[in-house]
Amino acid sequence: MDERLCHRLEQLLGATALPREAALYQACARDESNLGSYPPDAVVVPADARELALLLEFAGAEGVPVTPRGAGTGKSGGALAVRGGIVVSTARMNRLLEIDEADLVAVVEPGLITGALCEAVQERGLFYPPDPASLLSCSLGGNVAENAGGPRAFKYGVTRHYTLALEVALIGGQRLSLGRRSTKSVTGYDLVGLMVGSEGTLGVISKITLRLIPLPMQQQLFVAMFDDAVAAGTAVTRLVTAGVRPSAMELLDAQIVEHLRQSGRWSARGQVGAILMVELDGPEEGAVERLERAAGLTESAGASEVVVATDAGRCRALWEMRRQVSVMLRDACPHKLSEDIAVPCGALPEMLRRLDRIAVDHQLEVAAYGHAGDGNLHVNILSPEPLEPASRDAVLLAIFRAAISLGGTLSGEHGIGLAKRDFLPLEQEAGQIAVQRQLKRVFDPQELLNPGKIFPDA
Ligand code: 2HG
Ligand code: ZN
Known about the structure:
The structure is a single chain. The chain is of the alpha+beta class. The protein folds into three domains: 3-89, Uridine Diphospho-n-acetylenolpyruvylglucosamine Reductase, domain 2; 96-214, Uridine Diphospho-n-acetylenolpyruvylglucosamine Reductase, domain 3 (2-Layer Sandwich), CATH 3.30.465.10; 217-413, FAD-linked oxidases, C-terminal domain (Vanillyl-alcohol Oxidase, Chain A, domain 3). 36% of the residues lie in helices and 19% in strands. It is built from 16 helices and 18 strands. The chain has helices at residues 3-13, 22-28, 49-62, 114-122, 140-146, 153-156, 191-195, 229-241, 254-262, 287-300, 312-323, 325-332, 348-362, 389-405, 424-427, 430-443, and strands at residues 42-44, 66-69, 86-89, 96-100, 105-108, 126-127, 163-169, 175-179, 204-211, 213-214, 218-226, 248-253, 274-282, 305-309, 337-338, 341-342, 366-371, 376-381. The strands form four sheets. Strands 11, 12, 13, 14, 15, 16, 17 and 18 form an eight-stranded antiparallel beta sheet that branches. The protein has a five-stranded antiparallel beta sheet with strand order 4-5-9-7-8. A hairpin with a 4-residue loop joins strand 4 (96-100) and strand 5 (105-108). The mean pLDDT is 97. Zinc ion (ZN) binds at residues 133, 370-371, 378, 413.
């Protein structure tokens, strides 16, 4: 902590915005990327957009780096203060300002926990679909900054598809109000789209207007077993082309199921090569036929067994199990590397085949799970010890090259941040990176906001 800097900020913003607890500073030095600890010089927790803008004005005038932080659940190191300076936390800007049932919008502050919004709108018969696994602990501001997805992105789309308008503050203190409350708006450049997924490098979000949809009446879930992950991936492609549109299609490969079994979360007997969790939703009318058709198609697409979750409690337990996979793997393998590639849906079986080969070639345990309907896989290297940098880079390179050569991407939902910035040139050519660097300087000429992220060092 830089006491002098904190003192000056306290004079500007008051004591409540400058908590000094050691535990807070320790927490703000890390996120869930496992990329190490970067202690900030100051942690500022503004009460509102006015204080946030004052802070950014100060930072611009003094040339101090600022790293925005939501709930710290990010996986790519986006919230790490790699150049020191100020971490600005949105923890106190966490109000749910409005739910408008006629306009079908919610207006929130960025620190609101995603699950709290989901619950509040559900009580009114409305639905906010983006559902990252960390739903109960991540914040909406972080979701917007990373363009978060989740299982239901398959049917309903990602955070970008629900972000209608944003208020943001720029380094220097300028405040911008972007987008409209109407579902449609094509006036001028799509600056909302630019901000969503910009990983806190262009502006700091102070208010978010989100689109809501009516709550689907009925949800059903079944689990399909397969001989191996490639067979499950092939079934996903077949289901999609057959016109089945589940609300989620999650794949868990054999290693993941084995870890679930060992941790007491999966109790079904017998060897499992891979499972697909398929969730359907829609009107109550026709629900039985919908379920029968999807389960039947899944069987004819190669499932060895299909088990329907018959009641709401069982559905909840299965989703809870799925949401815990990341934490379970971290507990079992603290040195795991977890990746987030995505490929076009038709290429999913081939990507899974290539992962098998990469595991053999590099003699590593490679486990995959994730949002199979979207071709988005969380590829985990489960090594008992930290990998040597050369072996780590070699296996990551092989995974990224495979995904990119199949038309896919380095990141489907976790962002580039610090974790993958050195790999960016694999996916994007120099001209595209240069244009993005220029855009960054339009918003932040001194490169003070979340420096060291997305782009490799020049
Ligand atoms: C999930 O889908 C999350 O469970 C976390 O996106 C994935 O830790 C991970 O790699
Ligand atoms: Zn995920």
